[in-house]
Amino acid sequence: MALGPAPAGLLQLILGPVLVLLVCGLSSVLGQEVYTNQWAVHIPGGPEEANRIASKYGFINFGHVFGDYYNFRHRRVVKRSLSEHRETQVRLEKDPMVSWAEQQVVKRRRKRDLYTDPTDPKFVDQWYLHNSNRRDLNATGAWQQGYTGRGVVVSILDDGIEKNHPDLMQNYDPDASYDVNDADPDPQPRYTQLNDNRHGTRCAGEVAAVANNEICGVGVAYNAKIGGVRMLDGEVTDMVEAQSLSLNPQHIDIYSASWGPEDDGKTVDGPAKMAKEAFLHGVKEGRGGLGSIFVWASGNGGREKDSCNCDGYTNSIYTLSISSSTQNGNVPWYSEACSSTLATTYSSGNLNEKQIVTTDLKSKCTDTHTGTSASAPLAAGIIALALEANKNLTWRDMQHLVVQTSQPAHLLASDWRSNGVGRKVSHSYGYGLLNAGAIVAMAKTWTNVGPQRKCVFTVLAEPRNIGGHLSINKSVDACFGSDAHVKSLEHVQARLTLSYNRRGNLAIHLISPAGTRSTLLHPRPHDYSSEGFNDWAFMTTHSWDEDPTGVWTLEIENVAGASDYGTLTQFILVLYGTGSPSDTTTEKPQPGSGSCKTLDLRQICIECNAGYYLHKQSCVKRCPAGHAVGSQPLNYTVGNFVEPASVQACLPCPQPCVTCSSLSPDACTSCPPHSYLENNPGTCLHLNQILRETPGSFMVDGQGERHLEMEMGSRLPITIAVLSCVAIIATFAGVFLLLQIRSGALLKLPSLEAGSRLGANFSLGGNRVVSYRGIPTVWGDDGVNTDSDNEEFDVQNERTAFIKTQSAL
Ligand SMILES: *[C@@H]1O[C@H](CO)[C@@H](O)[C@H](O)[C@H]1NC(C)=O
Ligand SMILES: *[C@@H]1O[C@H](CO)[C@@H](O)[C@H](O)[C@H]1NC(C)=O
Ligand SMILES: *[C@@H]1O[C@H](CO)[C@@H](O)[C@H](O)[C@H]1NC(C)=O
Ligand SMILES: *[C@@H]1O[C@H](CO)[C@@H](O)[C@H](O)[C@H]1NC(C)=O
Ligand SMILES: [Ca+2]
Ligand SMILES: [Ca+2]
Ligand SMILES: [Ca+2]
Ligand SMILES: [Ca+2]
Question: What average pLDDT score do residues 167-184 get?
C-alpha cells in the first residue's frame, strides 16, 4: 500500500506527545516520581575533571551549578521516565572522583494561583459558568485570577435557606441570616409536601455552593459566605421588607432579592416608607459607608407585558437590576423590558435550552432552576468576586464596573442601540452579559468615582394636556457653576405625575442631549387603571457616562384610541452623576481609526474627516457641552508649505452662554446661574431683569427649584436667611394689612397682592408660587406631592415572590 509509511510516521507523531502526556498524567494521578535524564553530580576535582567524567559515562556537562556541583545530562536516558536509571547511577557513584550523584526527579510545584477546574460531579453541567463556546459568564476568568469570593458575605432575601445542606453548610453564615417571618435567628425553610419553600436554598447554591466536595455543582463565588433571610413565607409588610434589607449591614456585603410587586402587567408599586429608608440607610451606612449592594431580579412578568419600571424596587437607583438571557442568547418569555435594568446573566429559556444547576431542598441537587430569580443570585456571586478583588468599592463603583464590563456578546434583541458614549444598551439586557473575568480585572485597579451629585430641574410650570401625543423639551445646564454640577451621568429619573383614563395605553420616552432614547414605559395591555402616576420616578441607566448638558425631551404618546385623555401635572428631571467625566469616555485620536484626516509630525490630529469635528486634538461627532462648531485656522506643522486653511473644530460658546447651538452670540441654549435664557436659542439676560419684565416665565422656576434642591449643605444658611427675611416682611405686611382693614382702607388690596407675589418670587421658593399663579389648584396638589414622597404607596404591600409564577416556568 502506497499509504504505508505515511501512517507510520503519523503514528509516531501522535504517539510521542500522547506518551509524554500519559506519563505526566499518570504520574500526577498515581503520585509517582517522574525521573529526568539529568543528574546532579558532586565532583571536587574541578571543571576539567567534571568534563572527563561526563564523557566517560555518556553524559554532557551542562555546566556548573554552584560550588562543586555539576549538571549532567545523559545522552541515551529518556527525558521523562517513571523508573529510575539505576545502572547509570551505580556506575557514577562507584567512580572515586565522584563524591555524590543523584538522578533528578520532577518535583510537583504548583504555582500559588494555579487554577484547576472544580471536580464536583455537576460542574460539567454548569454551562453558564464555563463553556468552550464562550457563551458563559466567564467565571473561570475570575477564578484563574484567584478570586472565589473569599471574605465576602452574601445574603439571600427569600423563603429561607437550608443551612445544613451538604453543599452549603461549609459556607453558611449565621450572621448573614435571620428569620423575619418567625422572628428567630434560624432561617431554615418550612417543609411542605410541594416543596414550596425551596427557592431561597436554590438561589443560595448559585452564589456559594461549595467546590471540590464531590457534591452537586459549585457557586460562582464558591468560597463566599452565604446566609439567608426567611421573609417571603408569611405576610410581607413594609416592616418585613425593611427589616430584611437592613439586616446586619456592617457584616453583609451583598443582598440578593428575587421578589417584587405582582407581575400582572397592571401593577404600579414600590417600596413604602420604611423599605425606602432601609435602602437609603444601606447605601449610606452599610459596609462602613461604602454602601450595601442590593442585587435585584427585574421580574417575571414578560408574558403579561409588564414593565420593570413599574416595579419600584428594581426601578430604584439603589438596586443593581439584573435581567435574563436564555442559553441561546434570546430574550426569555418571562423577561420584562425597561430602562432601569443594568445587566444580564443566564437563566432558563425554552424546553430545549438548559437551565440552572444548584442546591435544592432536602440536601438535593437540581438542574432545573429557572426564571429571572435565577439570574440575580448569579449576578450577586459575580459581584462578590469583584468585591473580593477590591474591598474598597462603593455601591456606585460596582454599578460603574457592571456598566463598563458587561457585554452584548451574542445576546439577541431588536433594540440594541449605541448611547452617547458609544456603549451598546438594550431594554431587555441593559449593558449585556456580566463577565466575571473582566469585572474582577477592572475592579482590581479601579479608583473610586467621586461623590454622587444630584441636579434637579422642575420642568413643568403648568399642567399640560397629554391627548394623543405630548412632547416637552428642556434645555439644562446640569447645574453648571455649582457644586451639584453633573458632568458625567449615572442614573437619570423623570419624576412624573399624570392622570390618564387608561394608563396602559401610554408610552413614555426620555431622550438625552446625546440622543439616547430611553423607553421609560411601554404600553401595558392589562393596565386599564385610571389612577395615572403619582410622582413616579421613572429611571434610566442608558445615558450612563453621558454629559447631561443640553436639551432633554420627554415624549408621552397614546398608542390606542383618539378618545383617551389626561394631564401631565409634574415633570421633574433628576440627574445623578459625578463632577468629573469617567476617563473611558474621552475619545483619543487613533491613527487609522477613520475619524482623523491629518496627523501632524507629532502624531497629533489637526484635521478631521467630514462629519467629525476637532476637539482637543481628537475628532468628535458632536461637540461637547459648552462648545459649538466653528472654523479654526489649520495648525500646519506637517511641512513648510503653508496655505491659509481652516478646519471645522469645536470652539467654546461665546460669553456668557453655558451651552449654545452655534457660535453666534444669540444662540445660547443655557445660561449661567442667576441669568435667564430669552428664547431658545437666545441670549442670556441677568435674572433681575426678568423678574421685572416677565415674572414667572418657566425658566425661573427651573432655576429656583435647582437652587433649592442643589446641595443643601452650602445653601442652607442663605436659604434660612432669605426665608427669615420673607417671614419678617410677611409679618410686617400682615400687621400692615390688619391695620389697613381696621382703618377700613380696603382699596389698597390689589397692589398688596402684587407685592407679595413679587416677594415670594424673590424668595426663590420656586414652583409653588409660580404654579399657583398659573393654575390655582396645582398649589395644593404640589404640596401633597412633596410631602407624600415617601408614602405614596402605603396601601397594600403584598409581595409576590417570582417563585409564584415559577411553577409555570
Ligand atoms: C478606599 O477609597 C477611599 C476613597 O473612597 C480612598 O481614600 C482610600 O485610600 C481607599 N483605600 C484603599 C485601601 O484603596
Ligand atoms: C475572561 O476573563 C479573562 C480574565 O480577565 C479575560 O482575559 C478573557 O478575555 C475573558 N473572556 C472573555 C470571553 O471575555
Ligand atoms: C422642542 O420642542 C419643539 C416643539 O415642542 C420642537 O419644535 C423643537 O424642535 C424641539 N427642540 C429640540 C431641540 O428638540
Ligand atoms: C499649534 O501647534 C503648536 C505646536 O505645534 C501649539 O503650541 C499650538 O497651541 C497649536 N495651536 C492651536 C490653535 O492648536
Ligand atoms: Ca425559624
Ligand atoms: Ca459542590
Ligand atoms: Ca414586574
Ligand atoms: Ca435598579
Answer: 98
Counting ligands in written order, the one closest to the CA of 343 is 8
Alpha carbon distances (Å) from 748 to 60, 86, 262, 676, 727: 119, 123, 59, 32, 21
Q: According to the model, what pLDDT value does residue 322 have? A: 98
Ligand 2 atom at shortest distance from the alpha carbon of 134: 13
What pLDDT is attached to residue 137?
98
Please list the alpha-helical segments (H only) found in 652-711. Answer: 687-693, 698-709
Q: Does residue 529 belong to any structural domain of this protein?
A: yes
Helix (H, G, I), strand (E, B) or coil at 80: strand
- Given a contact cutoff of 8 angstroms between Cβ atoms, the answer to whether 700 and 690 are in contact is yes
Residue nearest to atom 1 of ligand 1 (CA): 392
Residues 185 and 236 in one domain: yes
Q: Please check whether residue 535 lies inside any domain of the structure.
A: yes
Ligand 4 atom nearest to 632, measured from its CA: 13
Residues with catalytic roles? 158, 199, 373
Higher pLDDT, 704 or 382: 382
485/533 same-domain check: yes
469 within ligand 3 shell (Cβ under 6 A): no
Measured in Å, residue 432 CA sits from the centre of ligand 8 at: 15
Total domains in the fold of the chain: 5
Query: Buried b vs exposed e over 785-797: b needs ≥16 C-beta within 10 Å?
Result: beeeeeebbeeeb
DSSP states of 292-325: -EEEEE--SGGGGT--GGGBTTTTSTTEEEEEEE
Q: Which atom of ligand 3 is nearest to the CA of 551?
A: 13
Q: Which residue in 283, 416, 427 sits closest to 342, CA to CA? A: 427
More confident residue, 622 or 172: 172
How confident is the model over 136-154, as a mean pLDDT?
97
The per-residue pLDDT for range 435-486, each reduced to its tens digit, is: 999 999 999 999 999 999 999 999 999 999 998 999 999 999 999 999 999 9
Residue located nearest, by CA, to atom 4 of ligand 1: 448
Q: Which has the higher per-residue pLDDT, 648 or 188?
A: 188
Per-residue confidence (pLDDT) for residue 231, from 0 to 100: 96
Spatial distance between the Cα atoms of 793 and 237, rounded to a whole number of angstroms: 12
Q: Could you tell me the residue range of the domain that residue 166 belongs to? A: 123-444
Indicate the top mutation candidate among 113, 132, 435, 444 to test ligand 2's pocket, ranked by most ligand atoms within 8 A of CB.
435
Whether residues 434 and 339 fall in one domain:
yes
Whether residues 571 and 591 share a domain: the answer is: no
One domain, residues 82 and 167: no
Mean pLDDT confidence for 795-808: 45
For residue 126, give the ligand nearest its CA: 6
CB of 99 closer than 6 angstroms to any ligand 3 atom = no
Mean pLDDT of the chain: 83
Tens-digit pLDDT profile for residues 743-799: 554 444 333 343 333 333 333 333 322 222 222 222 323 333 333 333 333 333 346
Radius of gyration of the chain (CA): 35
* Ramachandran bin of 467, using left for φ above 0, alpha for ψ from -120 to 50, beta for the remaining angles: left
Q: What is the mean pLDDT of residues 598-622?
A: 79
Specify if 378 maps to a domain: yes
Q: How far, in Å, is the centroid of ligand 1 from the Cα of 399? A: 17
Instruction: State yes or no: pLDDT of 704 exceeds 50.
Output: no
Residues with CB under 6 A from ligand 1: 392, 448
Residue closest via CA to ligand 4's atom 6 equals 635
Could you tell me if residue 658 is inside a domain? no
Same domain, 402 and 283: yes
Pocket test for ligand 1, best of 445, 448, 578 (most atoms within 8 A of CB): 448
- CA 421 to centroid of ligand 4, rounded, Å: 27
pLDDT higher than threshold 80 for residue 333: yes
Which amino acid residue places its CA nearest to atom 2 of ligand 4? Answer: 635
Q: Which ligand is nearest to the CA of 392?
A: 1
Q: Are 358 and 216 in contact (CB under 8 A)?
A: yes
- Closest-CA residue, ligand 3 atom 13, reads 551
pLDDT of 16 higher than 70 = no
